[in-house]
Amino acid sequence: MKTRVIDCIDKTNILDKLNDAGKILREGGLVVFPTETVYGLGANALDSEASKAIFAAKGRPVDNPLIVHIYSIEQLSEITNGINTIARKAMEAFWPGPLTLIMEKSQNVPDAVTAGLNTVGVRMPKNDVAIALLKAAGVPIAAPSANTSGKPSPTKAEHVIFDMDGKVDVILDGGPCDVGLESTILDTTSTPPTILRPGGVTLEMLRGVFRDVALDKGLLKKPDGDFKPKAPGMKYTHYSPDADVTVVEGRTEDVVEHIKERLLECSNKGIKAGVLATDETKGFYGENFIISVGSRENPITIAENLFDSLREFDKQSIQVVFAEAVANNGIGLAIMNRMNKAAGFKIEKV
């Protein structure tokens, strides 16, 4: 398959570009498009064979459900069995935006999209290119992140090209993503509503709308092998570079000292190691390969840069990465969920 990369940063003839991509989707093809969270690998959500092609392109396990993207509330009548009170309140507060809602699915949605579940994840993205593509396609678009399964999600077109060139029909380059982490997933079929994956819409934000919001027990620990995921990213190791990642938790001073000791051990063994540090700590690690992922004072910057930073270690052929944990509140809950999964839940507490 020959992949075309289309510049959507330059808005010249943008409607022609997106109408062409929309036609490809209607005809069963694969189109990668930007959202405010990460780049999505899209197919017609109502076409079972097209949706199956997503799994083949990514090498994604078939029991890992996909998220369906829409541009209007009216489209929900085609893919869900109605909107309950919880879902409606969440839409009013956070759509369009980085929030996916788990709802009861209609018969129109193929089992290939939902991994055989009777529920479907739906979101309305807050990205001009994504919304325009959805309108041009005229069908809901099923789209997981546009990366090789298990690897860091793509937040730039260059990430997508590295993973997906030759596997998809079109890549729409819309520039860097704003949020940098996949959407929050909220199960609206449970009481209270339950966060299945944290993201840009934080627990604190949701608790400003609902009296009670639960956290799924598997968010920060490794799920059991027979666990059946209700939403993407719940079961498998994700977001991992080729390097072996270890998360180090504790007081910042203790974390820095522990990582310095581990770096010395790696050096003595001839292992090429690096550190996923922050602006506040990057100067403490000497001549080792250090990436500052952002500032602890502004954790949104850490979310924006996390996946790009993990990919950078692979570019430098780093074998082992020590990642500093950050505060587990606000957007930090989503950051730590991704970090722990990238490490396969290998965590050293100091």
What is the element layout, followed by pairings?
Layout: E1 4-7, H1 14-26, E2 31-33, E3 40-44, H2 48-58, E4 67-69, H3 76-79, H4 85-94, E5 99-104, H5 111-114, E6 119-123, H6 128-137, E7 141-142, H7 157-164, E8 170-173, E9 184-187, E10 194-197, H8 203-207, E11 214-215, E12 244-249, H9 252-268, E13 273-277, E14 289-292, H10 299-315, E15 320-324, H11 332-342, E16 347-349
Parallel strand pairs: 1-8, 2-8, 4-6, 5-9, 10-11, 12-15, 12-16, 13-14, 13-15
Antiparallel strand pairs: 2-3, 3-7, 4-7, 5-6, 9-10
Helix pairs in contact: 1-6, 10-11
Could you describe the 3D structure shown?
By secondary structure, the chain is α/β, with parallel strands linked by helices. The chain has two domains: 4-215, DHBP synthase, CATH 3.90.870.10; 244-349, Threonylcarbamoyl-AMP synthase, C-terminal domain (Rossmann fold). Helices cover 31% and strands 19% of the residues. It is built from eleven helices and 16 strands. The strands form two sheets. An eleven-stranded mixed beta sheet has the order 1-8-2-3-7-4-6-5-9-10-11, sandwiched between helices. Strands 14-13-15-12-16 form a five-stranded parallel beta sheet, sandwiched between helices. α1 packs across α6 (128-137) and α10 (299-315) packs parallel to α11. The longest helix has 17 residues, at 252-268. It starts with a strand and ends with a strand. The mean pLDDT is 94.
